[in-house]
Amino acid sequence: MALIPDTMQAVVLTGHGGLDRLELHEDWPTPVPGADEVLIRVGACGLNNTDVNTRTGWYSKSNTEATSGDYLAGADNRDGTWGGESVFFPRIQGADIAGVVVATGERADHALIGKRVLVDVWFRNWRNPKDLATTGYLGSEYDGGFAEFTKVDRRQVHSIDCALSTTELATFATAYLTAESMLDRAQVKAGDAVLITGASGGVGSALVQLANRRDAISIAMCSPEKAESLMAIGPAAVLERNPIDLRSTLRQATGRDTVD
Question: Which end of the chain has fewer CB atoms < 10 Å from its terminal CB, N or C?
Fold first, then answer.
C-alpha cells in the first residue's frame, strides 16, 4: 500500500462569504486518525446546499434571507453551523464522501483497510448517540471531504460492494438520509399515498425510491421536461408541478383526490 503523505491538497473555507472564501491548498496537513477513527482517501465528494449554507452563514438564527450563494448580512459565526454551533475556521467542507480506507486507529477494524466506503454524515456523541444537542454535520461542525484525505469515526463508515462508480456513490448520503428521515418522521407505511414535490431533485428522487421500498404509493411532481426521466425511477404517477387544480389532477392520475 502506498505511503500516506504528511500533506495533501484541500479546499479550505476561511470564513463566511462567497466563493472567494474557499482556498485551494497544496500542502494542508493530512489528518491523523485517533483510536476510534479511520483515514479515508477521498475518491469523490458531492456538493450540497448544506455546504453553501454553512459558507454563507445561512444557518445563523440572525439571518432572515434566502440562500443566495453569497455572505448573508447579519449572519453570526456563533451559530452558523447546521446544528447551530459556532463555525471554526479554517474548515474543510464536503459531506457526501466516497473513498477507500487507508489507515485505522487502534480500536477500529483493521479489516476496513482497502475497503471502498460511504460515510454517515452525522457526528455523534457515541455515549448518547440520539442526543441531538451533541450531534454535528460533516463539513460543517467537522472537517469533510473536499480534500485528498479525511478522517471519521469508525462507526460512520459503511463498506460498499457494488457496480456504481465512486462518483455516483458520492451523490447518496445527504439526499437519501434526508429523504429517509422525512419518511420516518411522517411514519409512511405500505399503501400510503405520498405526494413528492420537487421530485426530480436529489432529495425528491430519493423520496420516490425509498417510498417505493416501503410499498407506499409515490406520486411525483416535476416540470414537464423532466417527467420522462423521472418515470424511470418508478413513481406511481408524475404530475405537472404547478397544476391549476391539484385535486382533479390527482384524481385523473391516481383515481383519488387526496394523499396520506
Answer: N
| Selection from 29-33, 50-54, 241-245 with the highest mean pLDDT | 29-33
Burial class from Cβ neighbours inside 10 Å (0-12, 13-18, 19+) for residue 107 reads: exposed
Q: What pTM did the predictor assign?
A: 0.86
Residues in contact with 226: Cβ distance below 8 Å, sequence separation at least 6, in sequence order = 200
For residue 73, the model assigns a pLDDT of 53
Contact assessment for residue 56 and residue 67, using Cβ atoms and an 8 Å cutoff? yes
Report the amino acid identity of residue 224. Answer: P
In the predicted structure, residue 77 carries a pLDDT above the cut 80: no
Contact between 213 and 221 under an 8 Å Cβ cutoff? The reply is no
Domain 174-254 fold is: Rossmann fold (3.40.50)
Residue 206 pLDDT grade (very low, low, confident, very high; cuts 50, 70, 90): very high
CA atoms within 13 A on the CB side of 143: 24
